[in-house]
Amino acid sequence: MTGALDAHVIVDHAELDVRLSLSPGDVLAVMGPSGAGKTTLLDAISGLTRLDAGHVDIDGDRLADATRHIPPSRRAIGLLGQDPLLFPHMTAIGNIAFAARSAGSSRAEAVAVAAEWMPHIGLPGHGDRRPDQLSGGQRQRVALARALAARPRLLLLDEPFSSLDVLAAAQLREVVHDQLHGTTTIVVSHTVADAHALADHLLILEHGRVTQEGPLHEVLATPDTPFTQAVAATR
Fold first, then answer.
1. Strand-strand pairing, 209-215 and 27-31
2. For residues 20 and 146, what is the distance between their CA atoms, to the nearest angstrom?
3. Distance between CA atoms of residues 202 and 188, nearest Å
4. CA–centroid distance for 129 within its chain
5. CB 26 within 8 Å of CB 184
6. Domain chopping of the chain, boundaries
7. Residue 34 · residue 215 · CB < 8 Å
8. Cα 132 from chain centre
9. Which residue intervals define the domain ABC transporter in the entry (predicted)?
10. Residue 210: which H helix or E strand, with range?
């Protein structure tokens, strides 16, 4: 799996004013207080909300601006949130294979790809189980594999560990870290542990504006705002 060649995002509307650029394989953590605009940013990038101004470009493709809106299904962007949103009538392998099929694999290839994912996410022997037969952490692992099996140009993680207990969250962080394989990623979180486990860079978003950004360790070592100071104190 490879990351996006280049991703430029400029979002400017009533709630948000953000400019960021990602290089291949970058993992960017976005942190900020509740209501800062973190989920709005991901919605703008994924296509779940329309832009009033600014633009979203990936690999030189204009996905959105004030007059253009490519729908989410055509953006090749993966999104994993707190709720895995698995298809309840499908097995774990069926859910992952669905994503591989959407990326152009044949039915047989998609099932083979899905089967290969099961040991990678620490669930060998669980492929024939439906979501209601899996724990919350196991469902999130399947959802991660489904997102990556679609070979996204960009992966968006929106608080994917927040609904899990401490042990399950720590285990899933390790799985995500091991399976990104250079996939360009933005991870939104309230927890500095997520940023430390996954990210190279950190962006602080407050009141819809970027208040600090840079290499993760530099931002945490020299916090500019009370919020970033509080985040740094939890390292």
1. unpaired
2. 26
3. 10
4. 25
5. yes
6. 86-151
7. no
8. 24
9. 5-232
10. strand 209-215
